[in-house]
Amino acid sequence: MSKEETSNELRLSILGMSCAGCVSVVESALNGVPGVTEVSVNFADHSATVKGETDPERLIRAVKDAGYEAAVMEGFENPAEQEEQELARYRILLKKAAVAGGAGALLMLLEMANWLPDMGSATGRWFWPEVAILTLAVLVYSGAHIYRGALKALLSGQANMDTLIAVGTGAAWLYSCIVIEYYGSLPSLAKHAYFEAAVVILAFINLGSGLETRARGKTSSAIRQLIGLQPRTARVVRNGAELDVPIEEVGLGETLRVRPGEKIAVDGVLIEGHSSVDESMLTGEPMPAEKIEGSTVAAGTINQSGSFLFKATRIGRDTALAQIIHSVRQAQNSKPEIARLADRVSAVFVPAVIGLAVFTFLVWYGFGPEPSLGYAFVTSMTVLVIACPCALGLATPISVMVSVGKAAQTGILIRQGDALQTAGKLTCLVLDKTGTVTQGKPKVVSIEGAGGFSETEVLQLASSLEAGSEHPLAAAVLTAAREHAVQPKKMAQFKAITGHGVEATQDGRRVVFGNRALLEKEGIDLASHQDNLARLSAEGKTPMLLAVDRQFAGIVAVADPIKPDSAAAVQRLRNLGIRVLMVTGDNPITARAIAREAGIAEVRAQVLPQDKAAVVRELQAQGETVGMVGDGINDAPALAQADVGLAIGTGTDVAIESADVVILQGSLMKVPEVIRLSQLTVANIKQNLFGAFFYNTISIPVAAGLLYPFAGILLNPMIAGAAMAMSSLTVVSNANRLRWQKL
């Protein structure tokens, strides 16, 4: 592979796509480039994601050969610049609509007032050719982009929506010119010009496209907000001086200064100072996070109070913010199965409409009333103008874009578009215990003194023994000592007893701290404490026992408490009709206690990491559609096996990479929100598809004159143009409703 070639993934901006038919053309062109393994073209934001190993210039050339323009999208786009470009396009389209609409309105008013001269009169012979020239100028100004698109499609052997509009309006203008030139030779009923129809159709098309551009911009607001979080400059400390440099010039390991109210430029670790940081845009968590020395900070988050120094650990595309933006875009460009169906229909839609227009012309010309040529022309032109492949092409990607963006704003990162379709169908959810249902951080929940020792003395002796240990239970004891302002004392003759506990001496006393087996080995009688120990174990707590000079001195009970919202989340899942199981490697007593507290009825305990995926397969074999929620390396196989894998974002990178959905703030309550969002999104897509199919199924036969034999109704081509423009706008507007839906 040459240096110019890239591997993995590349994003291209595609210019010139006018309808869903263009998507299949661009995808075919890119798939034909050697080295390309996967292509996904998004009509909603006019982009393409290409995976494989190939030269970007080859990709751009392939797109150009297909009749479109392409450019590589690199780094962070400027949201303000993007919005300015969209606003400029919106204004241009409105201006084109105004010019065409003004010309069409003037012609219609003159006709309604009967002020237009007869084509056969002396005045008509000079007036109507001038109208033809003026309307041609309007068509060129207001429709140049459409005619260029149609020409490119023709040269590449394709047909798209531009083709339909260009043929329809071009035929209207050309037919009108033929009527002027051969006025005396035509039947009287065929002597009608359609100049006003041609320009008014373009007015409606441009107006609809302009409004659609503005509405489509709103669907991208979430991704723009994420991009807008990235500051353009950073304050680095070099040779003792603080310098403001472009974000691209920050190197790994450099020290950066952040002042109150400023955005953090890159990911890093705080090395001096302390502060609170607003991480709500990344995690959805409204409460500021306290940061002290050793705490990690993320690019795009906002420093609220103190000034601090931090060391850069991840820069550029490796920052958490960049990865989130990448994942959101990846999901927006991925296609659920329902979208692939729409693409297949759209690929043949335009050729089918052109064929139907020709068929309509022939039927009316051969069997229609006089003037059959006039009727044939009007009906075939109306068929071309009213058909709307755009609505079909937008139905799915526009809803996916809105949903993925909405999810990102609430701390849910959807990595695969298929997850949006599948999550709403889940019938069974498997939850890991540690870090998913529970907080994943053991803490001291009770201290009991015995044999004359107070609770404070028990905690002091226990923390003194655990002061040098890195065991999670030791960390819980030391944290409790700090919270109770208890100062550990120095111990002598320290000895760790693997799998049991520790022992040491203090002031000539021999102190032992550990599990029940250790104290029984020391010959300490625990019969009188049997009920208490059994109760603690049944409650899911781990009792650690203290003895001084072979006398029982107290109990320090440690537990991994469930998250505050776990029970409510489980209840909401059950209300959704979902079967909830907890699968853990922990012992059955602790597992059942945690499950009981969280409201989970089914528990699988002492399940080995490699067997968690087997549990998922077993449930799938029973006909369940299974979701798996986990946060550790041992959950990765099960996350990959599940129909939808949901990773708690506070967990390991391996688990996150194996998941379809990442819950950034670690709240289990986000799981039912994902399911609800999936249900809303699929319903929205179905509404869009139904509307698009219904519109085309009803409007095209009506445009072809199907109602004329029964009711004498023929559709005006200008009304057809307005209807076509509104159909796409309706789909985009319906998708935007998802932004306000409550999860």
TrEMBL record:
It comes from the Bacteria. InterPro entries: ATPase_P-typ_cyto_dom_N (IPR023299), ATPase_P-typ_P_site (IPR018303), ATPase_P-typ_TM_dom_sf (IPR023298), ATPase_P-typ_transduc_dom_A_sf (IPR008250), ATPase_P-type_domA (IPR059000), HAD-like_sf (IPR036412), HAD_sf (IPR023214), Heavy-metal-associated_CS (IPR017969). GO terms for cellular component: plasma membrane. GO terms for molecular function: ATP binding; ATP hydrolysis activity; copper ion binding; P-type divalent copper transporter activity; P-type monovalent copper transporter activity. NCBIfam families: ATPase-IB1_Cu (TIGR01511), ATPase-IB_hvy (TIGR01525), ATPase_P-type (TIGR01494). Belongs to the cation transport ATPase (P-type) (TC 3.A.3) family. Type IB subfamily. The chain crosses the membrane at residues 97-116, 131-151, 163-183, 189-208, 345-367, 373-396, 689-708, 714-732. Signal peptide: none annotated. Its EC number is 7.2.2.8. Pfam families: E1-E2_ATPase, HMA, Hydrolase. Keywords: ATP-binding, Cell membrane, Copper, Copper transport, Ion transport, Magnesium, Membrane, Metal-binding, Nucleotide-binding, Phosphoprotein, Repeat, Translocase, Transmembrane, Transmembrane helix, Transport. GO terms for biological process: copper ion export; copper ion homeostasis. Residues 8-71 form the HMA domain. It is a multi-pass membrane protein. It catalyses: Cu(+)(in) + ATP + H2O = Cu(+)(out) + ADP + phosphate + H(+). SUPFAM superfamilies: Calcium ATPase, transduction domain A, Calcium ATPase, transmembrane domain M, HAD-like, HMA, heavy metal-associated domain. It is an enzyme of class 7 (translocase). Its main location: membrane. It is found in: Cell membrane. This is Copper-exporting P-type ATPase.
